[in-house]
Amino acid sequence: MPIENRERLIQAFEGILRRDVEDTLKRMRDRSGRIVLNADDLFKMLPEYEANPADRKILGPMLYPTARKFTDEIYERLLSQPLGSEDTIMLTAGGSATGKSTILRTDGRRPGVEFILDTTFSNTERGLLQIEKALEAGRKVEIQYVYRGFKSLVIAMLRRALDPASGRIVPIDDMARTHFGAQGPYWLHWQGFRMTAGLPLFLKRTDAMEN
């Protein structure tokens, strides 16, 4: 794709996200009304992404930095809001296509959850910084670590890529990076690391659920 087309699409995508932030936030809510911060979910707001499933393997990585920057800003904005009765931030951890969204459809709707940060947590330093910010804002933090064996994970990604409702492809190197990187918070918690010690961490195995 020519560089000028890339720049045009990125600028158009950012304009769509920021044209009406409140409308974008509405699109980020799940069926229960809670906000789910997931950069990948924003891609379909760009008409070219929505209308061209075959191009998503190129468009997704191209749009991701813009989407991540936007969700980071919304994360800060939500943490700046006054505390209410729902004061728990639920973070996910686990590689791409592990089934995190499936878990969130149940666990994320529990009373007490303010909003959800749906991420792989494969960048441990970044993840710990997000936890620290939430704690400084007076929130409780809960980590949902979802594990799937790598072979099962690849099969799940291919099924998702072939599904017209999703059509999102994750490159195999990214899958490997997030799969192994996401194990960081689990082992840090196991070792009693200062940031995660005392924080609830739940381990779910989605490949075990399939057997």
Descriptive key words:
Rossmann fold, 52% helix, 211 residues, 5 strands, alpha/beta
Secondary-structure topology with pairs:
Layout: H1 3-19, H2 21-27, E1 36-37, H3 47-51, H4 56-79, E2 88-93, H5 100-107, E3 113-117, H6 124-136, E4 140-147, H7 150-162, H8 172-181, H9 183-190, E5 201-205, H10 206-210
Parallel strand pairs: 1-3, 2-3, 2-4, 4-5
Helix pairs in contact: 1-4
Question: Describe it for me?
Answer:
The chain is of the alpha/beta class. It has one domain: Rossmann fold, CATH 3.40.50. Helix content is 52%, strand content 12%. The chain contains ten helices and five strands; from the N terminus they run H-H-E-H-H-E-H-E-H-E-H-H-H-E-H. Strands 1-3-2-4-5 form a five-stranded parallel β-sheet, sandwiched between helices. Strand 2, helix 5 and strand 3 form a beta-alpha-beta unit. It is globular and about 45 Å long.
The helix/strand order is: HHEHHEHEHEHHHEH
Which blocks of ≥5 consecutive residues have pLDDT under 50? 193-197
- Strand tally is 5
Helix percent band: 40-55%
Beta-strand content bin: 5-15%
CATH fold-level name: Rossmann fold
Task: State the name of the first-level CATH class.
Answer: Alpha Beta
| Cα gyration radius (Å) | 17 Å
The overall pLDDT average reads 82
The end-to-end span amounts to 42 Å
